[in-house]
Design a protein that fits this description.
With 238 residues, this protein is α+β, with helices and mostly antiparallel strands. The protein is 27% helix and 32% strand. It has helices at 15-25, 41-51, 117-138, 155-163, 167-170, 209-215; strands spanning 2-7, 29-33, 55-58, 65-69, 74-82, 93-101, 104-112, 141-147, 165-166, 172-173, 189-193, 198-203, 221-226, 235-236. Strands 1, 2, 3, 4, 10, 12, 13 and 14 form an eight-stranded mixed sheet that branches. Helix 1 (15-25) crosses helix 6 and helix 3 runs parallel beside helix 4. The longest helix has 22 residues, at 117-138.
């Protein structure tokens, strides 16, 4: 099961390059940040998903987060929530999709956290709380993917990695850096997984460098997850 995250910067860059990168990800579930939010936003999200062989499973306009799924994923449930609004800061949201893959149910959340540390932490707690409710309701493994806007030694990342598991830390592939796409020196995008799946690998995508640079200002992350009884993986999340 391949679960990924990608900040697409509102499709402000090369959309053909973006489609090629998303296609190279081969994700069964893709969490998108900075999805189109304004004119024709639904159609633009759908067109991007379809061009990459996927479909839109969840996400509202406010917050700019969305979830795409590939043909192997069956969508069981979808929801979207606007997170607490802080005066003067950008509106944030969380998209949640419960999907079935390889006989395993995953409750996946797409988040894009704020530049303000206080808002960032509050929204992480709020989003994870909503995800955990959906996961419990549908008997699914919680997975959070997104642009955290801070690195792994900062409070919000440590909170997420304390409640779930930082997939890259369990089974790293590559150097893990995601920002900027042109000169990647920070790991601010991640996949966090709950109990019930194993992490086979997590890291970057084997797309052409020119496409990665042209598509958006972030690099994508993909985690390969294995459910119980479906094979061996080098790391077990528990």
């Amino acid at each position: 099961m391949r679960v990924g995250t990608y900040n697409v910067r509102g499709l402000k860059d090369s959309v053909p390059a973006l489609v090629r990168v998303i296609t190279a990800m081969r994700a069964d579930v893709l969490c998108v940040q900075e999805a189109p939010r304004f004119l024709y936003w639904r159609g633009r999200r759908q067109a991007l998903a379809e061009a990459a062989g996927m479909r839109v499973a969840a996400g509202g306009r406010l917050g700019g987060v969305s979830i795409y799924v590939g043909p192997r994923a069956r969508v069981v449930h979808a929801e979207h929530h606007v997170l607490k609004i802080f005066l003067g800061l950008e509106i944030r949201g969380v998209a949640i999709a419960v999907v079935e893959l390889e006989g395993v149910r995953l409750a996946v959340a797409s988040i894009h956290l704020d530049l303000s540390p206080a808002a960032r932490f509050h929204h992480a707690v709020e989003a994870l709380g909503r995800l955990e409710k959906a996961a419990a309701r549908f008997g699914a493994v919680p997975v959070v993917c997104g642009d955290v806007n801070e690195q792994s030694d900062a409070p919000t990342w440590r909170y997420l990695a304390g409640r779930l598991a930082d997939a890259y830390a369990w089974a790293p592939r590559g150097d893990g850096m995601t920002f900027t796409a042109r000169e990647p020196r920070k790991r601010i995008d991640g996949v966090f997984t709950g109990t019930g799946v194993r992490v086979a690998a997590c890291g970057g995508v084997g797309a052409a460098r020119e496409d990665l640079v042209a598509a958006t200002d972030h690099l994508p992350v993909v985690a390969e997850l294995i459910g119980p009884g479906t094979g061996h993986a080098p790391a077990t999340v528990s």
